[in-house]
């Protein structure tokens, strides 16, 4: 059969097509090595930018008043009898509370209004009763000396809890903590007093931790935190 000018012989066509088929087959085999579901590139990542201050021409808000960190020094209640044995349980908790109220009034720093004070005085000798704003006294070692301190709490208006803690120094009752809060719970752990209060967001709480300050001989704030609410620790007593 005569050849047409411009066309290659059939054998030449086969020689050209064959390498193309081989390359296509090789690509298919290589493509088959990629596992299904393998991660793929999402493209170029956005450039990371540093923090940029907004409204730099505006003055910052003035600093707020510093938070109270607790008592600066212990406050002796000299109106109470001395306890030479060092056992604060031998003293009436109600008498300690009334001595505290009287001492605050002498310093012109009354904590309670007159109607509240009347209720407290009427039931100070039976704290813990449902009709009494005075909570039952608690005894825990707060300063690590192996002896219990006395913790008192009075629930004021709107569920505000006023708390004091007392220790004995050479037989004299001394106030070592004066704190107020709206607590969900209060606990003592490892000589620390921890107050849990409701947070602004559901399921969250703020925690204030008081620890013994050996230098100043009082309980001071060690930490104030905010986080998810933790279940209360069961009482061991």
Task: Give me a quick take on this structure.
By secondary structure, this protein is of the alpha+beta class.
Structural class: alpha+beta
Supply Rg: 38 Å
- Give the distance, in angstroms, between the N- and C-terminal Cα atoms: 113 Å
- Mean residue pLDDT: 83
Strand order of the largest sheet: 1-5-4-3-2
Q: Strand count, sense and closure of the main sheet?
A: 5 strands, antiparallel
**Share of helix among residues?**
10-25%
Overview of the structural elements:
The chain crosses the membrane at residues 12-31. With 237 residues, the protein is α+β, with helices and mostly antiparallel strands. The chain has a domain at 75-181. Helix content is 19%, strand content 27%. The protein contains 3 helices and 9 strands. The chain has a 5-stranded antiparallel β-sheet with strand order 1-5-4-3-2, covered by helices on one side. The termini are far apart. 18% of the residues are buried. The model is unreliable at 1-24 (pLDDT under 50).
Write the layout of secondary structure elements.
Layout: H1 10-31, E1 75-76, H2 93-106, H3 114-123, E2 138-140, E3 149-155, E4 161-169, E5 172-181, E6 185-189, E7 192-198, E8 204-213, E9 218-228
Antiparallel strand pairs: 1-5, 2-3, 3-4, 4-5, 6-7, 7-8, 8-9
Key attributes of the depicted protein:
disordered N terminus, single chain, 237 residues, elongated, five-stranded antiparallel sheet, 19% helix, 9 strands, alpha+beta, four-stranded antiparallel sheet
């Amino acid at each position: 059969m005569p050849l047409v000018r411009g066309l290659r012989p059939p054998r030449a066509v086969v020689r050209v097509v064959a390498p193309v088929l081989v390359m296509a087959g090789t690509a298919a085999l290589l493509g088959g090595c990629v596992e299904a579901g393998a991660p793929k590139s999402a493209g170029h990542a956005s450039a990371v930018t540093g923090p940029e201050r907004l409204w730099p021409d505006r003055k910052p808000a003035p600093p707020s008043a510093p938070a109270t960190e607790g008592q600066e020094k212990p406050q002796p209640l000299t109106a109470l009898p001395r306890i030479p044995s060092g056992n604060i349980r031998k003293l009436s908790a109600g008498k300690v509370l009334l001595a505290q109220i009287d001492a605050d009034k002498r310093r012109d720093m009354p904590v309670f209004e007159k109607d509240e004070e009347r209720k407290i005085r009427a039931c100070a000798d039976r704290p813990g009763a449902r009709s009494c704003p005075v909570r039952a006294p608690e005894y825990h070692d707060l300063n690590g000396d192996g002896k219990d301190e006395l913790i008192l709490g009075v629930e004021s208006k709107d569920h505000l809890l006023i708390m004091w803690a007392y220790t004995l120094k050479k037989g004299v009752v001394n106030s070592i903590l004066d704190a107020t809060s709206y607590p969900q719970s209060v606990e003592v752990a490892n000589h620390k007093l921890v107050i849990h209060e409701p947070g602004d967001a559901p399921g969250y709480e703020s925690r204030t931790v008081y620890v013994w300050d050996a230098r100043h001989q009082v309980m001071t704030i060690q930490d104030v935190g905010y986080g998810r609410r933790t279940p209360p620790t069961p009482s061991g007593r």
